Amino acid sequence: MRKIVIIVTAITSVVLFYFTIDAAVGVFRPDWQLPEESDKEPLSNRIVLITQELDTPFWDKVSSGAREQAEKGGANLEIWGSYGNNQKDFLKQIEIAIYSKVDGIIVQGLDTEEFTELTKVKASSYGIPIITVANDVPMDESLRRTYVGSNQYLAGKLIARQLIVDMGTSGEVVLLLDRRKEYYQEQRLAGIQDFVEGFPNVQIIEAEAGNSREEVMAKTKDLLNKYPNADAFIAVNANFAGDMIEEIERRSKVEPYYIYSFDDDSRSLTLLEQGKLDGIIEQSPKKMGEQSVELMMEWLTNETVPLNLEGYLTDIQMIKAMDVQ
Amino acid sequence: MSSIQKKIWVLAVVVLLIMATIWISLIYYNQKMQDQYNEILERYLVMNEVTSTSQQMVTALNNYLIDPTSDNYGVIDSNREQIQQMKADVIDLKHAENEFALTNYVNLMDSLIEAADRSLLSHPEGETENARNALTEATHISNYISEMTLTLIDTELKTYDRFYRGIIDQSEEIKQLGIWLLLLITFLLLLFTYWFSLRITQPVEKLTEAAGEISKGRFDLKVEVDSKDEIAFLAKTFDHMRININNLITEIQQKAQLEKELQQSKLLLRESQLRSLQSQINPHFLFNTLNTLSKKAYMEGSEETSDLLVSVAGLLRYNLKHLDKLMTLNDEMKVLHQYMDIQKARYTDRLTFHTSVDESCLDIQIPGLTLQPIVENAVIHAVEPNEDGGVIWFRIIDGEDRVIVEVEDDGPGMPEEKIKQIMAEQLDTTKGHATGIGLSNVVKRLRLFNGFDDVIQIESCFGRGTKVIIHILKERGVVQLDETTNRR
Predict the structure, then answer these.
(1) Start and end of every Histidine kinase domain (chain B) (predicted)?
(2) Is B190 on the interface with A (CB under 8 A)?
(3) Which stretches of chain B drop beneath a pLDDT of 50?
(4) Best mutation target, A6, A20, A47, A89, to test chain B (most B CBs within 10 A)
(5) Average pLDDT, stretch A8-32?
(6) A64 and A163 together in one domain
(7) Is A291 strand, coil or helix?
(8) Picking from A30-34, A50-54, A256-260, B440-444, which range would have the lowest pLDDT averaged per residue?
(9) Are A136 and A178 in the same domain?
(10) How far A88 CA lies from chain B's nearest CA (Å)?
(11) Contact predicate B224/B236, CB 8 Å
């Protein structure tokens, strides 16, 4: 009996000791995860990539390319921007970047006065280099160092050529443009026009629409009424493609129409896979991200001065619906 | 310091130490937590201050542009000063996750000051338009600062999210520790208290037990207590007391024994004094008279009467002379025969006396007047009351280390109670005895003489007779005799 009592006592005390010490260790050796201390050195090579269209597949690719390159090149990169083509917010971001005296700004080009004012006057007064990416602005209006992205003129030509191949040398082609007439769209348009010039039987109808979904659909309806014989549609602003096709579908089948667009909208690829788009121009967003950061670093470290003002062009190619299917 | 007190002190100090340890560690932990909280709160406060100061600066600048007094200028100046100071504070808040944003933040503050300066520079030179523009810019920057403050605080919250969760987990763990600690301390204290109280109460219990034993009268158990405190001292003293009492009791017992024996010898003395008083008639006169009577009877031709008288005289002389002396068995036998002659003369045919004597034993020593009272007793009780008389057998048998003397009669027997009284030497049996010596007296003297109690046996059967057997050692127990003498 006495033995049992002693054994039970010993076991109880050992168990209690174990749990108490266990709990005490937990309490007095806290694993609070405080953020890592940074070295007090001021940051160098702070680069901001600013876009109007955050979280779209196209810009996600640009961002990831830029990030990878930043990691490699030792730059401190942040991706800023606005969602859904919010220009006001976009411009504010640029302004903040300038006032924050970042070392370099890589920005999606925007062909507006405010943008020009910001890049030309503010950025240069603060001595901040600007590289446009994906969408260019006219070189002489903005003091951008260079442009990294597709050759939009060539893209226009490519799409026109595909159109002629698919449709034949005669027909009515409707081009849906942005009312803001951004520089890259104008270049695309120029490319298309220059190519089609050689085919007099092909008639080009240019149409402009506002940026909202309703406006696009209204415009499409209007166009379909006005030109019942239209054979092809090209969404020069890729964002319009989805709404445009939706409106066409309401009226008739999509298949008879030749519809083309670009890949800088999130819906483009899906529509192509569904066969609703006949072809899109695929650009190289990842490459754009990489190269823009690389060039910015080269500029900042004075490796390449000056940068090629004409821009560094990335690959483009035509993807047809048949290739995807 | 006495030892029990020391033990209690030890208990108190141990409990105190445990409590102090727990208290100190909790205080330490609490302090640490508080420091962390304060640090984090400080960050928010600094950022918030930046926002408000930059807004104040813009307001002040606006006021100055409208009303360019030195007072207003002073306000701008002090605000600028504050912002410069805060820049240093803000840089201290830098960590890996907000490095970029924080650098931007600091630069925004710089830009604000620059814009303000530009505005101030343009103003006195009359370039109001430029000053206004710079003010607008400053306002924008101030707004950006506010926004960025919010963003930064938001980031901070995200960054410290894990930390907060850590703290919450920690408080849960503290709760658990508290429970475990409470259990452990309770358990240990119970154990300790049990052990501790045992150390105090066990000796007391032992002492109580010992006291109980002593109160019951057992003085031979040793009082043993193996602690080292006052109780042990008490136990030792108690043990001393026990030994002392034990000694005293032994002493008292011895004294009582002595007293008893003294009393007995006193009684014997008185008895003999009485006897000597009774026999105050001059024995020589009696002898001479008896002798004269004997001669007279002889001369008158009554030889029988003459012999009888000689026997009476002999018996009387023996009685007077040899009561306290050792005699041989032979002498005793002679006296016995003289006595029997007298009794035969009295009872004639009614008394039949048979003897069977082992002659070899007759040299043995024996207290005087031992046999005669026994035989006389038989005569008194067996022959005298019986009309038809009685038979008395007298035997002396050699029994190895002792001589056995048997006196048997065929009388009515002796009651059991009486035998016991005789054996206890209590009964006064002198009544009716010629020599005044009773059976009890014989027993006593034989016991003293032999040195042990088992000297006499009385076997009696109601209506069939009584047999008295006495044992006399051939070798007298010298040792026993010595002891007996000593006891006296």
Answers:
(1) 371-476
(2) no
(3) 478-488
(4) A20
(5) 83
(6) no
(7) helix
(8) A30-34
(9) no
(10) 14
(11) no
Higher local confidence (pLDDT), A84 or A18: A18
Same domain, yes or no, for B289 and B376?
Answer: no
Q: What is the pLDDT, as a whole number, of residue A156?
A: 92
Q: Are A80 and A49 in contact (CB under 8 A)?
A: yes
d(CA B442, CA A189): 169
In the predicted model, what is the mean pLDDT of chain A?
87
Q: Report how far residue B252's alpha carbon sits from residue B260's, in angstroms, rounded to the nearest whole number.
A: 12
Q: Coil, strand or helix: which one is B432?
A: coil
Is cis: bond before B367, omega within 30 of 0? no
Quick check: A103 and A60 in contact, CB under 8 A?
no
For B377-409, the pLDDT digits (tens) are 888 888 888 888 888 999 998 887 888 899 998
Instruction: Give the chain A residue nearest B182 (alpha carbons).
Output: A20
Does B401 share its domain with B312? no
Q: Which two tokens stand for residue A146?
A: 């260079």
Q: Is A16 on the interface with B (CB under 8 A)?
A: yes
Say yes or no: B24 and B110 in one domain: yes
Instruction: Tell me which of B112, B170, B175, B192 to substitute to probe the interface with A (most A C-beta atoms closer than 10 Å).
Output: B170
Judgement on whether residues B330 and B315 belong to the same structural domain of the protein:
no
Query: Which residues of chain B make contact with A78, given a CB cutoff of 8 A?
Result: 100-101
* pLDDT tens string A137-173: 887 777 788 899 999 999 999 999 999 998 888 889 9
* Contact with chain B for residue A44, Cβ under 8 A: no
Show which of B292, B321, B350 is a domain's final residue.
B321
Using the predicted structure, report yes or no on whether residue A175 has a pLDDT greater than 80: yes
SS3 at position B403: strand
Q: pLDDT tens digits, residue range B311-335?
A: 888 887 887 776 667 888 888 888 8
Nearest C-alpha of chain B: how many angstroms from A212? Answer: 28
Please answer yes or no on whether B107 and A35 come within 8 Å at the CB atom. Answer: no
pLDDT at B435: 64
Q: Which residues contact B430 (CB under 8 A, 6 or more apart)?
A: B436, B437, B438, B441
A157 with A276, same domain? Answer: yes
B373 lies in the same domain as B390: yes
Tokens matching residue B79? 């605000």
Pick B187's closest partner by Cβ from A16, A38, A46: A16
Q: Under an 8 A CB cutoff, do A99 and B183 touch?
A: no
Residues A111 and A185: their CA atoms lie apart, in Å, by 10
**CATH of residue B358:** 3.30.565.10
Q: Do A28 and B25 touch (CB under 8 A)?
A: yes
Domain holding A219, by residue range, is 152-283+320-324
- Quote the domain boundaries for residue B394: 325-487
User: CA of A36 to nearest chain B CA: how many angstroms apart?
Assistant: 5
